[in-house]
């Protein structure tokens, strides 16, 4: 098994290289100019502009710049933002708390909601509860996050006035009142994300449970005279959780990527918002750093999914090892991190096609 | 089993034969085909049927509806004494028809969806935008499915080195960060493509469809490869080979039709994903130019007036939502219907 893990990690490294190369190439070959903001400014003469260009290293051809970026990255130097002239790592540290507060909490809530809903849905398949849950989860992953956001803003912020529209990151939690403010402004963006992530995860949990419920060992457990509760929670749930844990672990990097649309809609100045502004300003170092985080975190998290694969291979759910392996491969390649507001949508779509019930 | 025995043992023999006759006469003489089976299963999926109906209605409304709506709107404008654009206005004229006396009008008989901040009719704009959004979804799906089917077919059919190379490329594409990369490429390459094509709308259409479709073919490739791997070992392929059928014919005429079920499902879901992707791009301001009213763009523009005229964002938003929801239900129904294992 150690060998398997090592092999996976070794595959991950070239993948990261290629991805960073592709993104760097796209950024460099595109016609956007990082110094466009100076181009129209008459007080900055051509010679100064050239000097800024040289100081940022932009006079070099882009393969040279890529190698330099790679070298610096290897030493832990994330570079300096073209736009703000601040070190990229500082920018990321500034934005990370907001993103974690909103996207991280949303993810946690989604997982906590999805697992019980998925279990009940599967155990009582085709019951009223299951039908409602299924319908709602279809609604959840069909609704674009900007539309959920707008409807929630309209109902709860504009009409009812319960929550603020704009997220203020300047609130410092010192007493109960500011804590209340902080919680209130987190409610709407978190709800938007929870709607989507719960929908996808519930479906996945349900399918995974259903797959196990029809297996022979469940019948054996029932035949032994175990009560329903033990069969479902001890036997079926532990096995069904394996792919779900994998998927949840694979989704963790997306937390660090932030949620582009939701952050944009509620003016949360997190990492997703940073990515959009950096793309708009052709701020190569920031875009590179953010996409790199997105890519590399699945690699560092490989161990968790791999561990669950080990469990599943050793366990009785051999039927799903194929899927497990593919999920792990996907995690190393990082098929997951879409940086959208969706959960790893490609993985989910893939899982849906494979596990559909 | 035991119940049937009891009936035969306990009941008089006559009733059993009568029952048997009843059963035999009810069986239809029409042969059951794969497609009729699929249709029978599909009809039972109520939500999928509703989804299909909504989709058909939206497509008709968007592509044929303007034929009826344009004269209606012109007549309504005339009767209420408002300026009418030109003698023979079509949809493209009406979406840009300003009416400053009627800005931000709520839904009325004249303007069923209301008007925006420049007095433009929202229903006309939604119909026009729907054409673009549905076309984007459809074309992106065609691109994604074509690439995916060819890559998957080649990888599954030839195996070995070709399979290895193609699957590594597929994994690589899977590991690219989808949404940021889409935003990045569309944003950065918008201008040159527009200049090369000549028209902003066509240029953006091309690049959005290419990028969204070009980053979505991987699932299809994997599904198709998996089907090919199992199908190419079947006897009918062996028979075709023995008859001297060429490899291309075997791949696309013999194996591909047998793998069509999962491809159709993937295609359906892809249309929905592409519509969401396009509207998200428009919402973030990197999609179609501001004067092109796609659904996503209409939601963005409308969200400025959320407090005073919420219908501006809600109507187009609900259209996106309903379309994608219908597509997803349709896909779900098709998956159950086209799965030969689920014989109902």
Core attributes:
heterodimer, A: 357 residues, mainly alpha, 16 helices, 75% helix, disordered C terminus, B: 344 residues, globular, disordered N terminus
Describe what you observe in this structure:
The complex is a heterodimer of chains A (357) and B (344). Chain A has 16 helices and no strands. By secondary structure, chain A is mainly α. The longest helix of chain A is centred in the middle third of the chain and has 38 residues, at 176-213. Chain A is globular. Mean pLDDT of chain A is 75; it is low at 299-357. Chain B has 344 residues and is mainly alpha-helical. Helices cover 73% and strands 0% of the residues of chain B. Chain B is built from 16 helices and no strands. Chain B is globular and about 75 Å long. Classes of the chains: A mainly alpha (357), B mainly alpha (344). Chains A and B meet through helix 1, helix 6, helix 7, helix 11 and helix 12 of A and helix 8, helix 9, helix 11, helix 14 and helix 15 of B.
Task: Describe the structure concisely for a colleague.
The complex is a heterodimer of chains A (357) and B (344). Chain A has 357 residues and is mainly alpha-helical.
SSE order and pairing:
The complex is a heterodimer of chains A (357) and B (344).
Chain A: H1 2-29, H2 36-39, H3 46-55, H4 62-74, H5 88-123, H6 128-142, H7 145-159, H8 176-213, H9 216-223, H10 228-257, H11 260-266, H12 271-280, H13 284-300, H14 303-314, H15 321-333, H16 345-355
Chain B: H1 2-10, H2 13-26, H3 34-44, H4 46-63, H5 65-79, H6 91-94, H7 122-158, H8 160-175, H9 178-197, H10 200-214, H11 218-231, H12 235-242, H13 247-255, H14 260-283, H15 295-303, H16 311-338
The oligomerization state is: heterodimer
Largest interface pair: A-B, 54 and 54 residues
Cα-to-Cα separation, first versus last residue of chain A: 31 Å
Q: Return the string of H and E elements of chain B.
A: HHHHHHHHHHHHHHHH
The general outline of chain A is: globular
Fraction of residues in helix of chain A? over 70%
Question: Number of helical segments of chain B?
Answer: 16
Query: How would you characterize the largest beta sheet of chain A?
Result: none
Rg value of chain A: 23 Å
Distance N to C terminus of chain B: 20 Å
């Amino acid at each position: 098994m150690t060998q398997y893990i090592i092999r996976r990690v070794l595959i991950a490294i070239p993948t990261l290289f290629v991805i960073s190369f592709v993104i760097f190439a796209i950024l460099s070959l595109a016609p956007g100019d990082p110094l466009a903001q100076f181009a129209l400014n008459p007080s900055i003469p051509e010679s100064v502009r050239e000097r800024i260009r040289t100081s940022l290293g932009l006079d070099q051809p882009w393969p040279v710049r890529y190698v330099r970026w790679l070298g610096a990255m290897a030493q832990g130097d994330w570079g300096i933002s073209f736009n703000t002239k601040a070190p990229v790592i500082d920018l990321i540290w500034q934005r990370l708390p907001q993103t974690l507060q909103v996207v991280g909490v949303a993810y946690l809530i989604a997982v906590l909601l999805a697992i019980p809903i998925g279990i009940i849905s599967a155990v009582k398949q085709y019951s009223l509860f299951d039908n409602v849950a299924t319908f709602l989860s279809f609604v959840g992953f069909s609704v674009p996050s900007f539309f959920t956001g707008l409807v929630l803003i309209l109902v709860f912020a504009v009409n009812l006035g319960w929550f603020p529209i704009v997220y203020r990151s300047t609130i410092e939690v010192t007493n109960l009142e500011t804590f209340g403010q902080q919680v209130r402004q987190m409610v709407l963006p978190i709800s938007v994300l929870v709607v989507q992530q719960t929908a996808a995860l519930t479906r996945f949990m349900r399918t995974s449970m259903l797959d196990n419920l029809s297996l022979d060992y469940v019948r054996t457990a029932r035949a032994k005279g175990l009560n329903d509760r033990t069969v479902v929670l001890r036997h079926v749930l532990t096995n069904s959780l394996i792919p779900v844990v994998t998927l949840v672990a694979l989704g963790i990097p997306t937390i660090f990527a932030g949620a582009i649309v939701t952050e944009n809609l509620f003016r949360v100045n997190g990492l997703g918002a940073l990515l959009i502004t950096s793309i708009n300003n052709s701020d190569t170092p920031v875009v590179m750093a953010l996409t790199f985080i997105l890519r590399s975190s699945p690699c560092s998290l490989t161990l968790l999914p791999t561990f669950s694969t080990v469990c599943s291979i050793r366990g009785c759910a051999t039927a799903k090892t194929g899927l497990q392996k593919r999920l792990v491969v996907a995690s190393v390649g990082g098929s997951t991190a879409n940086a959208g507001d969706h959960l790893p949508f490609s993985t989910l779509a893939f899982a849906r096609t494979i596990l559909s019930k | 089993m035991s119940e049937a025995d009891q009936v035969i043992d306990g009941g008089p023999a006559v009733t059993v034969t009568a029952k048997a006759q009843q059963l035999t006469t009810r069986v239809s003489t029409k042969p059951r085909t794969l497609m009729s089976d699929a249709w029978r299963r599909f009809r039972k999926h109520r939500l999928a049927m509703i989804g299909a109906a909504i989709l058909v209605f939206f497509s008709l409304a968007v592509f044929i509806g303007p034929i009826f709506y344009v004269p209606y709107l012109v007549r309504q404008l005339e009767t209420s004494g408002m300026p009418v654009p030109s003698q023979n206005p079509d949809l493209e004229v009406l979406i840009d028809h300003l009416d400053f006396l009627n800005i931000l009008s709520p839904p009325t008989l004249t303007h069923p969806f209301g008007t925006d901040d420049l007095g433009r009719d929202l229903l006309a704009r939604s119909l026009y935008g729907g054409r673009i959004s549905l076309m984007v979804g459809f074309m992106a799906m065609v691109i994604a499915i074509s690439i995916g089917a060819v890559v998957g077919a080649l990888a599954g059919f030839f195996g070995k080195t070709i399979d290895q190379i193609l699957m590594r490329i597929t994994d690589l594409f899977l590991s690219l960060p989808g949404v940021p990369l889409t935003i990045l490429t569309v944003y950065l390459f918008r201008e040159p493509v527009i200049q090369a094509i000549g028209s902003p709308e066509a240029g953006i259409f091309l690049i959005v469809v290419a990028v969204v479709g070009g980053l979505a073919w991987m699932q299809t490739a994997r599904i198709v490869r998996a089907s090919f791997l199992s199908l190419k070992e079947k006897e009918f392929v062996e028979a075709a080979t023995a008859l001297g059928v060429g490899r291309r014919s075997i791949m696309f005429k013999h194996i591909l039709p047998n793998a069509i079920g999962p491809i159709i499902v993937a295609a359906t879901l892809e249309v929905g994903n592409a519509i969401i992707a396009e509207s998200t791009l428009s919402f973030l301001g990197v999609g179609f130019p501001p004067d092109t009213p796609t659904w996503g763009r209409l939601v963005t523009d409308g969200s400025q007036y959320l407090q005073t005229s919420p219908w501006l964002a809600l109507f187009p938003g609900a259209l996106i939502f309903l379309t994608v929801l219908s597509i997803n239900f349709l896909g779900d129904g098709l998956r159950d219907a086209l799965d030969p294992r689920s014989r109902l």
